[in-house]
Amino acid sequence: MTQNKPELLVIEDDKGLQKQLKWSLDEYHVVLAEDKDTSLVELRRFQPKVITLDLGLPPDPANASVGLELLDEILKLSPSSKIIVVTGNDQREVAMKSVEMGAYDYYQKPIQPEELKLIIKRAFELASLEEESRVYRRNENMRFHGVVATSPLMLSVCQKIEKVAPTDLNVLLEGDSGTGKEVLARAIHSISPRQEKPFVHLNCAAIPENLLETELFGYDATGFSENKSTSKGKIEEANTGVLFLDEVGKMPMSVQAKLMRVLNDGVVARVGSREEKKVDIRVICSTHEDLNQKVQEGKFREDLFYKLDEINIKVPVLAERDGDVVLIARTLLNKFNQQFGRNIRGFTKEAVQAMEAYSWPGNVRELENKIKSAVVMSESSQIGAEELQIDESQLREMPLNLRQVREAAETRAIQRAIVLSDGNISQAAKLLGLTRPTLYSLMDKYSIHS
Ligand SMILES: Nc1ncnc2c1ncn2[C@@H]1O[C@H](COP(=O)(O)OP(=O)(O)OP(=O)(O)O)[C@@H](O)[C@H]1O
Fold it and tell me: What integer pLDDT is reported at residue 181 of this predicted model?
């Protein structure tokens, strides 16, 4: 099967040498080209990791000028390919020049197949190492300050965050539980001018109503009680930084009124004290409820709602984020492999299909739990569908409109191919059985970014 062999582009004008090379390099899928034009066509088609380039090319094989011109073009078109220049044994200067231009190595004729094979093998190893580090960097880019995302929906959330982070506006993050609101709040903090200042988190739903007030504003019992204790509240702790109020919809009306004063006047008074301290905080809130609705029902102060909702960001559920499930799953797999000292290499095809078809009612938190448990429990080198314990009754229904079905399927397949080939469009096109231009036009049509 030639497809599984690494592709090697051999640019050679001499028919005898072509035969010899093809025969001796049989562990590679050798693609032959004998002049400049064919070489450029094959280069665009295969983007081979390694190329051998005999500089003696037509129309003037005795002279290296066409070969050097081609070398220059290849370096521009495919800078990551490793080029081994082949020269006559009296052309050392030309060989040195080509290395100076950017060729990986040179080899002087007559060709000794075993020696050349060794150089080619080393070139492939280096190309793979460099590719791994590029993939790593690309994955890092998809990790926007802790937010792993590739779907158009989440990328637009990340863009919004990049825009609002440098301002001092308050932000309200709305979205279902486990969609990553806290991760986004931390991302805002980490790229805002307050990044070196505190990020203080308070979950309004996790604290009994009567304690929330002291938790937030602190208390000072020195004036009226035997117990002379005092305590800083979260607002003072967050001074000069960011206060993240999780589940803000659960805040009682009395506490809402006090918070409104802090935000309007920039001062806080501890419970039990009249002394006011100046504070400067940026507030980021999150909620899974419809706060606007709560305002209509009189359960949330309208003035506070507008104060907190200076910027509104809706966080989509995981099931709507095409391409994110598999990407986040792979990131989590790496994380848990490290955490639990495992070495699981990936997911089976069935596992990927199951993850994509599942509706993820618990969003990223549920995905995280499933991957964690699969990493701990798995006995094999890949995680299978059954190890993810996906509830089959929660598989999503397909729409009946054929155009919708086709477009959704195409979008998913393209996003999946891009994720599986780590953003390499040529590879993704190959996986999909498309040409690169066709893939690009489909990506345009569905607004998919690599
Ligand atoms: N895009 C993401 N990339 C990587 N991890 C994520 C992402 N989104 C969420 N997570 C992880 O999923 C878990 C849940 O996220 P988070 O706590 O931010 O959700 P939430 O919307 O604030 O949930 P809740 O409303 O229940 O508090 C966390 O462990 C978080 O690290």
Answer: 97
